[in-house]
Amino acid sequence: MRGIGRVLFATAASAGAVSGFGVTAAQAVDLNACTGSGRIYVNRAGPGSTLTNWSVEGGGSCPVQATPTAPLIAREPTLVQFAGAGTSDSLGLCDNTLLVQNFNLSVTATYVGAVTGRTFTEAQKWSAPVTTFPLATAFLITGDGGPPRIGAGVAFTHIFLKCGNDGNSPSANFVWTEIP
């Protein structure tokens, strides 16, 4: 039940992002809602620096495939693998700045059709001018070159607000919605 709530939250966040970029209801829009799990590693760029290097990897599925303008047309669910890296200017609660600033990751996502086995890979940017860490890190998704491909997601990390990887705590759950 918690997973459904997370998907609904990501869908609502994506709808807000879509409104901000001016996509109208008259356009044909497909929604892909995905969930997954994996790892987030964070490391300082150097001693005394607030610049933080990020690395993400994981996999999951996109079982909710919807076309609001044609809801009775079935679409194939997909499996997804993703990996990427990037930086932020701070690490939120983990460096006493409260917020993560200039979060920007380059992510490669590979999708495989659960029925046909068709595979496609795309370059994405996961970014947020301001977000939070640890616990929940919200981000927007655009194509590697920027819009029009957009979406939104949240990475849920570090139980009990633990900071640092410690070799034991890099796990994360991801939920996101994309508009291809």
Protein architecture, described:
It is built from 1 helix and 8 strands. The protein has an 8-stranded antiparallel barrel with strand order 1-2-3-4-5-6-7-8. The longest helix is centred in the N-terminal third of the chain and has 20 residues. The radius of gyration is 16 Å and the shape is elongated.
Overview in brief:
With 180 residues, the chain is mainly β. It contains one helix and eight strands.
Sum up the overall morphology in one term: elongated
Q: List how many beta strands DSSP finds.
A: 8
Helix amount, in percent?
Answer: 10-25%
Structural class: mainly beta
The arrangement of helices and strands along the chain is: HEEEEEEEE
Amino- and carboxy-terminal Cα gap: 26 Å
Strand order of the largest sheet: 1-2-3-4-5-6-7-8
Mean model confidence by pLDDT: 78
Tell me about the biggest sheet?
Answer: 8 strands, antiparallel, barrel
